[in-house]
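Many introductory courses stop at the sequence. We go one step further.
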Amino acid sequence: MHLHLYYEEQFDIFAQKIKSALSGRNYSLFITINECNDEIKQKFLSFKSDAKFIIVKNIGADIFPFITVLNLVNLEDYDYVIKLHTKNFHRKVGLIGRIMGKDKDVHYLKNLPWNREYSSFLTAKNIEKIFFEFEKDKKLGIVADHYVISKNHRKKRNRGITAATKNLLKSQGLPAQIVTYPIGTMFIGRAALFNSVKKLNLDESHFHKYKDKNFPTSFPNSMEQFIGNCANANGFTTKDVYNSYFHRFVDKLQHVCQTISLFLFRIDKGFVKIFKIPVFKIRTHT
């Protein structure tokens, strides 16, 4: 189990999820963090006394910390790898939201899709189901929520990233074909598959060019695709094996409703432009 804890205020949520989902199971816990924090250490050590904390530099998003952990372990000692990380979810509230009295800056945390879907596999019930499916289907490679299993490498804006990913796959003698991968790299996968990542022999120097403003064409994005395609490239599949078909249908319907809601309640400029609502600014002088 690897958790990259960049947004430290979320540590309690992840600690509770890990403790509940993996209680009674034999696992190693690696937590990467940018600086030492005694409160966070005590929280995790209270239920996992051998948890390992690794200080990493703030480079390469969540990908470099994951590679750091992979380079420290022998994957042959493990059956599965679980990867999690925190995300920033401060959102601006839109015009209608302000009219209804919402704050201008709201921290959507517990009810966001990533918390429901990105890490939805991390419950005791789902873990039991997933491990059962791994044993039953020997070609099952990576499990993630259907909500985040993506084919967006086909989109025009991702062509540069996809081309770089294909070059990485070719360098390892793997088929240069991207099928699907979990957006956000939160998943459970067979440990042996990620030897393909270790063989790249990456270190922090590969990530130094990464900057937020260049994110659409960054190396971490290519590595997100590469890591997610470790299953497909090695002849395994990537699936959601724990959500029912009905649950998936409801999720899609909810996603449509949520998209509309976020458009109305969060987006200022789009709403104002489309409906031609006049906006007045009050200038203050000091």
